[in-house]
Design a protein that fits this description.
- Keywords: Signal.
- Residues 27-50 are annotated as: Disordered.
- InterPro entries: Bact_solute-bd_prot1, SBP.
- Pfam families: SBP_bac_1.
- It is a single chain.
- The chain is of the alpha/beta class.
- Helix content is 38%, strand content 11%.
- It contains 18 helices and 12 strands.
- The strands form 3 sheets. It has a 5-stranded mixed sheet with strand order 2-1-3-11-6. Strands 7, 8, 9, 10 and 12 form a 5-stranded mixed sheet that branches.
- The chain is globular.
Length: 473
């Protein structure tokens, strides 16, 4: 790694944002209830907890068919280091996975490192700048292109070619763009899911209105949101929450249905101030400022960051499919989920997910691949039971394990096959600066302190020079 690349990574580490785990980030929760105790010691000879009993894990492991690869196991002992985001529940399940993996591959010792999502990139980009990284590394979709550009990651294509049963067709191709560059694939998704339209059945029943369905347009959503808004103060019911922001996937969900975009597909030109994007954003500003249908910034501050939809105070919300697990654990209201609405130019949504990557500095790439092959197999997803498996063949199994209605798995698979995609989701190196630059200007527009035209013109002027950072040699 040359001096310029080391400096770029150091800057990236210093600039890492603290993102929430259920919005743009993809820290997937598993089907078990949280471990009630605090920090816990996991028995390496019999890993388990009240949430994940060892006996049940062993039975599930033995019932699954684990994949093969033509990449040979090491002839002598090697140690691979894994670095992933984690929580108490995930840590137990991953320890169980590693336990059974080592039984299948006795010459591969697994050393696991864990860090909270908010600290993860800072920690490991500092290591990358120093030339030392684990053998397998978690990667959020918005980070990967920067690492590829700085020669940090190894391509995975040769490993996939040596694994005839890997079945790339089981992974949505429309969500792999975050991990590709110049024809090479540098990451494989740990999870992948679309964003969908969630709704509060109780509020719709009370209003005597039909539930949203596949026929809905954005015009229908706006009309219904106005009808569903009522009350004031702490008891107010919002028709929709939250107000769209100029974030990584705003194009894919809110602008493309009207023919608009935040940036062009190459992330080299600002398009948010063009007529189609302006039309879409203007409709939302009217809902906020004129109709008071979505919570304002001031109202959100009064709510002390409590999510109006999750607390039963908003009729509709667009969020990731991973939200279904969280909603299934509450009994405050009945909920439903369906396709996002259509716009004049069609129906669009984002397919987002994180990945596992192998750093170029790894001295144990073969062993790292053997681990990834099993961890990201259909059996691996079924064993871990995460809420948004990238392999579509695992959705029914996991939905049943999580207690979700079978039709939710069918909905997700249909959306992923039909119209969810990575197009319009910012992923090139300048993405964080772009979002951070646009945010305060858009918030002034949300407060009514600047007109829509002036806000979008200012965003275009400020973001345009930043896009030079996306032109990687």
């Amino acid at each position: 790694m040359n001096r310029r690349q080391m400096l770029a990574l150091a800057v990236a580490a210093a600039a890492v944002p603290a993102l929430s785990a259920c919005g743009d980030t993809r820290q997937q929760k598993q089907a078990a209830e949280p471990v009630k105790s605090g920090a816990q010691v996991i028995d390496p000879n019999r890993p388990g907890s009240e949430a994940w009993p060892f006996e049940a894990a062993e039975q599930l492991n033995n019932s699954l068919t684990w994949p093969k690869t033509n990449v040979p196991d090491p002839a002598s002992k090697v140690v691979i280091t894994l670095a992933m985001t984690t929580d108490a529940v995930t840590e137990v399940r991953n320890a169980q996975f590693d336990y059974f993996f080592k039984k299948r591959h006795p010459n591969i010792e697994v050393k696991r490192e864990a860090a909270p999502f908010d600290d993860f990139l800072t920690k490991y980009m500092a290591q990358a700048a120093g030339g030392t990284l684990p053998d397998v590394l978690y990667n959020h979709y918005s980070w990967t292109q920067n690492l590829i550009a700085n020669k940090v990651l190894a391509p995975l294509d040769d490993f996939i070619a040596k694994t005839p049963d890997f079945d790339m067709a089981d992974i949505p191709q429309s969500g792999l763009g975050y991990f590709k560059r110049d024809g090479g694939l540098y990451g494989l998704p740990t999870d992948m899911a679309p964003k969908l339209l969630f709704f509060n059945k109780d509020l719709f029943d009370k209003a005597g209105l039909d539930y949203p369905d596949e026929s809905w347009t954005f015009d229908k959503l706006f009309e219904t949101a106005r009808k569903m808004t009522s009350g004031s103060g702490a008891g107010k019911i919002y028709g929709f929450s939250p107000m769209p922001k100029l974030e990584n996937d705003v194009s894919a969900i809110y602008l493309k249905p009207f023919g608009g975009r935040f940036l062009d597909a190459a992330e080299s030109k600002v398009m948010v101030n063009e007529p189609q994007a302006k039309q879409a954003l203007g409709l939302w500003l009217d809902l906020l400022l004129k109709d008071k249908v979505v919570p304002s910034l001031a109202e959100l501050q009064l709510l002390e960051k409590v999510d109006p939809f999750k607390t039963g105070h908003a009729a509709m919300m667009i969020n990731g499919a991973w939200l279904m697990l969280e909603l299934s654990k509450q009994d405050a209201f009945k909920w439903g989920v369906t396709h996002v609405p259509k716009g004049p130019q069609g129906r669009f949504t984002s397919a987002v997910g994180s990945a596992l990557v192998i750093p170029a500095s790894s001295q144990n790439k073969d062993a790292a691949w053997i681990y990834i092959n099993e961890f990201l197999s259909a059996s691996g997803y079924k064993f871990r039971q995460i809420s948004a498996p990238a392999r579509q063949s695992a959705w029914e199994f996991n939905a049943k394990a999580m207690g979700l209605p079978p039709e939710t798995a069918e909905l997700v698979k249909e959306v992923m096959a039909d119209y969810a995609a990575d197009d319009g989701v910012l992923r090139l190196p300048a993405n964080k600066k772009v979002v951070d630059t646009a945010k305060p200007v858009w918030e002034r527009a949300m407060l009514g302190k600047i007109s829509l035209d002036d806000a979008l013109a200012e965003i275009a002027a400020k973001v345009t020079p930043i896009l030079a950072e996306n032109k990687v040699a």
